[in-house]
TrEMBL record:
Keywords: ATP synthesis, CF(0), Coiled coil, Hydrogen ion transport, Ion transport, Membrane, Thylakoid, Transmembrane, Transmembrane helix, Transport. It is found in: Cellular thylakoid membrane; Endomembrane system. It is a single-pass membrane protein. The lineage of its organism: Bacteria, Bacillati, Cyanobacteriota, Cyanophyceae, Desertifilales. The chain crosses the membrane at residues 21-42. The keyword Transmembrane applies. Residues 60-146 form a coiled coil. InterPro entries: ATP_synth_b, ATP_synth_b/b'su_bac/chlpt, ATP_synthase_B_chain. PANTHER family: ATP SYNTHASE SUBUNIT B', CHLOROPLASTIC. It comes from Roseofilum casamattae BLCC-M143. It holds the Pfam family ATP-synt_B. This is ATP synthase subunit b'. The gene is atpF2.
Amino acid sequence: MIDGTILLAVEEGGGLFDLDATLPVMAIQFLILAAVLNQIFYKPLGNAIDERSNYILSNTSEARERLAKAEQLAVQYEEELASARKASQSVIAQAQDEASQTAAGKIAQAQQAAQAKREQAQQEIDRQKQDALAALEGQVDNLSRQILDKLLRA
């Protein structure tokens, strides 16, 4: 039995690190596995991530450009709206002035026409008054003659 224990001790002699041909074979296998995984899985995944990143960057830059353009259009439309409001206010003011002038002119014409009719009516009244006074004078003369005749006869 002594011989058996000695033989076992000699066969186990390597210990924790055994530097035989398995270490380089394992290293080569690991490098081959890493290269295969890189080629099959990591490279397409990296390409997909890069494409997605580029897509996001391009969409972000396009969105910024569109936002800037929209803000520029909003400012432009606000300026156009402000100028249109000013123009419409000036048109309204001008129309109100014209309407006021037209109304004032028509009122003046109506007042002149009313004044002319009033003067015409006054002239007609004066003429009728003169006619009535003339008729009354004739009647007064006639009555005074009749009174005189009656008084002289009596």
